[in-house]
């Protein structure tokens, strides 16, 4: 194995992540562009830290997501960049987003459990759309009659929302308890209703 200096490690990692069409994991980087070289874990980690710092105040960031490292435009310039993309961003229905949220927060979960929480049936189209986007997958079957599929989110879901793990999901807001008796105001009968 050949020796390599720290600057060259940074350059190789930066270039590999830049040209890749999807996030690259540490193992993928080491087994491809860095494979001919002797690179310690400390040297690799220092290169990653340097890249994150180098891109901190720029229009793009070098960041880690669930499946590895990638470059991503910063939110502040998203509006201006949208002109570069002719296709419209897909619009998702409230039902699809509710279903996705339930899967993300309650996984693994069955379709029946999703329907129980939402109070309505979940269409096959919604489940197919989420699977086609590779945001959810079947991770097993519940040991009950009928053995319904158990759904969970994927690394592609985490990557899309720039998360490294489910622990980064925002906290759910507590559902307020409401005493209806406190909120009801008596209705005064008018003279006309008598």
Give a verbal description of the structure:
The chain is of the alpha+beta class and 194 residues long. Helices cover 40% and strands 13% of the residues. It has 9 helices and 5 strands; from the N terminus they run H-H-H-E-E-H-H-E-H-H-E-E-H-H. Strand 4 and strand 5 form a beta hairpin. Helix 1 crosses helix 3 and helix 5 packs across helix 7. The C terminus is likely disordered.
Write the layout of secondary structure elements.
Elements: H1 6-19, H2 26-31, H3 41-54, E1 60-65, E2 68-73, H4 78-81, H5 94-106, E3 109-110, H6 111-118, H7 124-132, E4 136-141, E5 149-153, H8 155-160, H9 180-183
Antiparallel strand pairs: 1-2, 3-5, 4-5
Helix pairs in contact: 1-3, 5-7
Report the sheet-strand fraction.
5-15%
Number of helices: 9
Query: What structural class is derived from the secondary structure elements?
Result: alpha+beta
Overall body shape: elongated
Give average pLDDT, whole number.
87
Report the C-alpha radius of gyration, rounded.
25 Å
Care to count the β-strands? 5
What composes the largest sheet?
Answer: 3 strands, antiparallel
- List the strand order in the largest sheet: 3-5-4
Order of helices and strands: HHHEEHHEHHEEHH
Approximate helicity band: 40-55%
Low-confidence spans: pLDDT under 50, at least 5 residues? 180-194
